[in-house]
Description:
Blueprint: E1 2-5, E2 8-14, E3 24-29, H1 38-47, H2 49-62, E4 70-74, E5 82-87, H3 97-112, E6 117-120, H4 132-146, E7 155-160, H5 163-176
Amino acid sequence: MEFSVGGVEVVLMRGDITEVEADAIVNAANSYLEHGGGVAGAIVRKGGQVIQEESREWVRKHGPVPVGGVAVTSAGRLKAKYVIHAVGPRCGVEPIEKLAEAVKNALLKAEELGLVSIALPAISTGIFGCPYDAAAEQMATAIREVAPALRSIRRILVVLYGEEAYQKFLEVFKKHLPGGRL
């Protein structure tokens, strides 16, 4: 399903984010950028240990990434140029609005890097425990607010693993984003 927001194409799709072609892939990360499980683990397994090594170096230099913040590393063997590690909230521990902040910061970082396309997973829905609909609302809100200001980014892919995630995100995105078409 495709939407158009402020001249930016937003594509909701099922799939494996490690297989997607985009200038940057967003990783659903923890503050210490230790990529053990979920999408983070899959990104390191597919992209190579260099992503984990660069992540540890980033934390050594800058300290832990705050919730809602981002860090950037190379993408190793992935098809992307960069991995933007976005730290979403742990539901029930940190405010859900930090998820929108993480998405906005990831989009703005990609813009700062002059990228044209970015792929986002369903941040905070795995071990961080946020329900799909709540995460989708935060992500749709962030995209709607930031997209009109983007100049280099022309394509945002929201890549969802599994049918349940896709259907929940589709339902929410249809309500929050204009111009939905198959």
